[in-house]
Recover the amino acids of this structure.
């Protein structure tokens, strides 16, 4: 239960003076509130921080006023020059001071308002951008027209907020002022949640003062990411995040596990059947996982590997050890394509081991599904591979000991926990082939132990990565003719079109038609909106060589494994993030021999797109690429927090606030060491912090005792 003290902060924005239903909808859009959520709330307004300012402190005489800058001028109104009747010409007002004059220009503006606001002979202050037009100074639609009394109330530095169509800066500012009016006294009474005897906050204001300073800046620098006010709020948000992870980790470590130790019989058969030896990184990761399984506490480990580093083999050997101990294992993948591929690949590897594997997806229905579930409950299936279907209530294991979640960042925490509820003391291994910067590992996966795979299996060659403007596409098609003549295979990935799957599909279908007319009978199409059987047929045709070119959307981004494919063409590469480009490139180079990646781009490239393509050509190190991606894009885009349910940050920016993250992490660990139940006055303050930043997982743990 949220403390009632915070209720006014979580009230609807419509509860504020001056905000009706129509404005509430626009505010929710401007504030980025989820479409299926409660709409804009008071706290959302307070956390809607300015991204810029308008500096109205410069108040020169007209002759000294800089052109093309915002200035505030004290003037006398000299003359009105209204346009002729039924003319579209603007209304002009001549104003002056002792050093010169300026024309104020108004288009399609109410003349009555102009005459009332700027009466002849009156002294006024006008503020706006001063320009030169045909040799004369002018100010088109001044932002402010004020008398001396109103000037005193005008903020010298105005915040500029992210907005949306139909909502003005003035309306957003008024809504935020209404939020302050309702909650300022409440926020001033909030206790300090940082233990100032342990954490030194250098020149940081308190929580309420920080919000006030950011929404009422006295200078443009006051809203900067490195300003004391922004750093204070970032530290609060990071502490809420790190404290949540520390509480979850502590709770996990207190939960009794079951010791799981295999006899090595199946593992030895698997290793003997491999055409290569595991890499040192794979052996180290496997040793860490086995140590966790053999411990009397539950495992929660993240296995992150670069593209092609062999995390699937580590997962299989871990599952084999669990089966040796008489228990079952589950492997969950984010897409049906990936689940089916895991099943096919693992079935081949397990051919001579006696392991019993099965596949469960949302496609399975009726009697076949019932038979599979009965076999699972009876213990006749050792390893179940599937999609979200594994969460369903009627999926009952005989004794599941290990649950593995592939591509962890595509699932939320709750889905991970749902799998762990499928058995008694289930150990959890989560995997990702998207290398994650260390900052984000600490931020989003700080409740887990971490194993990393950096090396690729022996025999993998460097992928030749090149970039080419899209107007040279004919050369690319000629290259495909040569590739197909040698029996080669290629992926053609179609552009990411805004945030629309429908547009992505349309782009893929158009490219498929073009290529199919050139390479008759040799092109297959794959995208997320196809029926399951159509997807299977496309993948099977490409894997067997019946189709030599697979045109696809980013549905092939993770896990798709056709070693015979040696070329990948990524159309409109400038639209993709670095992590995506790296993942897509990883679809080739999976077999012996040389592979290549061609990045087709539309010129001219922006600076960020240039940087991405340069990094792709320069490096295949996924961890270096991930760090660069974080620098260029920010954490939300890399991990897809909006899609996965992971909490993105509103006040902290990890590209700037990394040191604050380390501070918050140390503070959270100290808190959990000395006060794991968050008791007493200090604990009550921290509970307010967790509720303020809506860290429900931590609050639920504390409430559950």
């Amino acid at each position: 239960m949220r403390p009632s003290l915070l209720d006014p902060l979580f009230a609807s924005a419509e509860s504020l003076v001056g905000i009706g239903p129509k404005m509430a909808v626009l505010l929710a859009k401007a504030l980025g509130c989820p479409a299926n959520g409660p709409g804009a709330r008071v706290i959302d307004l307070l956390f809607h921080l300015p991204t810029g300012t308008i500096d109205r402190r410069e108040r020169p005489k007209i002759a000294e006023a800089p052109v093309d800058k915002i200035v505030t001028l004290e003037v006398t109104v000299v003359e009105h020059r209204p346009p002729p009747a039924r003319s579209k010409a603007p209304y002009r007002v001549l104003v002056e001071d002792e050093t010169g004059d300026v024309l104020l220009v108004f288009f399609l503006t109410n003349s009555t308002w102009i005459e009332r606001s700027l009466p002849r002979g009156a002294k006024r202050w006008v503020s706006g951008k001063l320009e030169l037009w045909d040799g004369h100074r002018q100010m088109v639609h001044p932002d402010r027209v004020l008398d001396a009394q109103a000037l005193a109330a005008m903020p010298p530095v105005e915040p500029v907020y992210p907005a949306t169509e139909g909502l003005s800066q003035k309306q957003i500012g008024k809504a935020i002022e209404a939020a302050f009016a309702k909650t300022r006294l409440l926020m001033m009474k909030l206790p300090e949640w940082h233990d100032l005897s342990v954490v030194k906050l250098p020149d940081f204001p308190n929580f309420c003062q920080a919000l006030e300073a950011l929404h009422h800046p006295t200078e443009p620098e006051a809203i900067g990411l490195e300003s004391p006010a922004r750093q204070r709020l970032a530290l609060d948000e990071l502490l809420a995040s790190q404290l949540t992870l520390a509480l979850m980790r502590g709770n996990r470590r207190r939960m009794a596990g079951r010791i799981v130790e295999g006899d090595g019989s199946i593992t030895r058969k698997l290793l003997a059947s491999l055409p290569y030896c595991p890499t040192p990184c794979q052996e180290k990761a496997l040793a860490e996982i086995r140590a966790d399984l053999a411990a009397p506490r539950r495992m929660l480990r993240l296995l992150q590997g670069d593209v092609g580093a062999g995390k699937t083999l580590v997962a299989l050997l871990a599952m084999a050890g669990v089966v040796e101990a008489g228990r079952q294992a589950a492997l969950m993948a984010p897409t049906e394509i990936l689940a089916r591929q895991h099943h096919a690949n693992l079935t081949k590897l397990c051919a001579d081991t006696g392991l019993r594997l099965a596949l469960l997806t949302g496609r399975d229905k009726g009697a076949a599904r019932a038979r599979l579930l009965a076999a699972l409950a009876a213990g006749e299936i050792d390893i179940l591979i599937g999609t979200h279907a594994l969460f369903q209530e009627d999926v009952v294991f005989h004794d599941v000991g290990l649950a593995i979640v592939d591509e962890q960042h595509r699932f939320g925490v709750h889905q991970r926990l749902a799998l762990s509820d499928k058995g008694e003391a289930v150990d959890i291994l989560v995997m990702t082939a998207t290398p994650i910067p260390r900052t984000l590992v600490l931020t989003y996966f700080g409740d887990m132990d971490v194993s990393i795979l950096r090396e690729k299996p022996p025999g993998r060659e460097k992928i030749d990565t090149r970039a080419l403007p899209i107007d040279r596409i004919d050369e690319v098609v000629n290259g495909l003719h040569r590739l197909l003549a040698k029996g080669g295979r290629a992926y053609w990935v179609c552009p990411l079109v805004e945030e629309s799957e429908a547009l992505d599909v349309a782009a893929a279908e158009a490219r498929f038609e073009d290529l199919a007319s050139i390479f008759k009978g040799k092109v297959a199409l794959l995208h997320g909106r196809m029926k399951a059987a159509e997807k299977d047929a496309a993948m099977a045709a490409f894997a067997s060589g019946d189709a030599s070119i697979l045109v696809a959307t980013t549905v092939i981004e993770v896990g798709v494994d056709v070693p015979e494919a040696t070329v990948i063409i990524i159309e409109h590469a400038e639209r993709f993030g670095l992590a995506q480009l790296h993942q897509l490139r990883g679809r080739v180079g999976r077999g012996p021999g040389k592979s290549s990646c061609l990045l087709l781009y539309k010129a001219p490239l922006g600076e960020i797109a240039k940087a991405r393509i340069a990094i792709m050509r320069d490096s295949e190190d996924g961890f270096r690429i991930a760090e660069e991606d974080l620098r260029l894009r920010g954490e939300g885009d890399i991990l897809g927090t909006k899609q996965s349910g992971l909490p993105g940050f509103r006040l902290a920016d990890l590209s700037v606030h990394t040191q604050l993250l380390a501070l918050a992490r140390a503070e959270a660990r100290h808190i959990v060491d000395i006060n794991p139940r968050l008791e007493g006055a200090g604990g009550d303050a921290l509970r307010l912090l967790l509720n303020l930043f809506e860290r429900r997982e931590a609050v639920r743990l504390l409430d559950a005792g």
